[in-house]
Amino acid sequence: MSISRINLENTEKAFAYKSDCALKKARFLFTFMKSAILVKIATKITPWLIKVGFPIKKLIKRTLFDQFVGGLTLEDTGLVAKTLSRFNVQVILDFGIEGGEKNDQQYDAITNQFRDVISFASTQQNIPFISIKITGLTSITLLEKLNSPTKTTNTTNQLAFEQRIIELTTYETNQWNKLLARMESISQLAAEKKIGLMIDAEESWIQEPIDYIADSLMKKYNKDKVIVYNTIQLYRKDRLAFLKNSFNIARENNYILGMKLVRGAYMEKENKRADKLSYITPIHLSKGATDHDFNEAVEFCLTNREHISTIIASHNESSNLMATQKLIDLSIQANHPHVHFSQLYGMSDNLTFNLSDAGFNASKYLPFGPIEEVIPYLMRRAEENSSISGQTTRELNLITKECLRRGL
After folding, report:
1. pTM here?
2. Is residue 389 over pLDDT 60?
3. Which CATH number fits the domain 68-388, given the four candidates 3.10.129.10, 3.30.1050.10, 3.20.20.220, 3.40.50.970?
């Protein structure tokens, strides 16, 4: 395998799955998203318009929704997955439920929906993973109480964490045990159906209990095959050390570590909270420092590939090329079962489809659900594309290049 085989500029392969109509719609959408002011206005008023019943759903469905979401239902995602499978692209299926305070009946219903997603994924040839947010299954207030009260970014102290569990009220202990039961129910079915379960990373002030749950489930289910994956956001200063510590714990307990590597999704929120509460932000002060830790994490995981199964979830071309070159340097086959690349549906098709074409395991992160449920996700995608330097321009240039090639 030669690095020259991977041409991330090949738009014919990148957009082969899109019809002329879909490609022109994407061109229009990314042209709109180039305007940070328009995006800011739209993301502020759209949730309100939905809430008051303004007839805007049809417009959202035909624009942002169609570009970034797999559909309204599981059956819809099956059609998208089938299209992607023609190009050897796999799917990480995500039921687009957002965190928020709910009652036990609602949390139990969401648990059953996640189980339905697992069962559905097991019937599809190219959906090996699903994604899950723990904040969809319990109170954020509970998670925050269980997090370390100190504003440090040190690796989880398990004894201190378990002491905080002991100090919960009777009601809180009951809620914690219900969360563990919900996660056990989901994980057990995932293991039975042989579907990977990716636990999303969330804000730093609720991440510690999420890490605790992920570690506990990996210890149980990742003995022979990797079922459970934790997610680390490398824009956090402590996460590279956390990765290495997690690896050591996994080796000591004889299980395979499952890790999804991302740069991070809550930077503005994290920095604002740190400033408001007067503690040192857990986020790197420069993009360069984040890039360094991300690439170091990729290299560490690939070097220890027999004991770590890694999802490299990045839209950064340099990081993806670095990872493929590392595979070559280490004489690792492109489709090693413990190495997987992934990008969001509707973004960075030049990465996903060209990596897949070169023989690497590549997937699209595919959310689905009712428009009301996925609105927060869609607003984040719009904001992300308009705020990340060059992201929208890069997407638009590639789409425009393919439009010109097709004569559109």
Report:
1. 0.92
2. no
3. 3.20.20.220
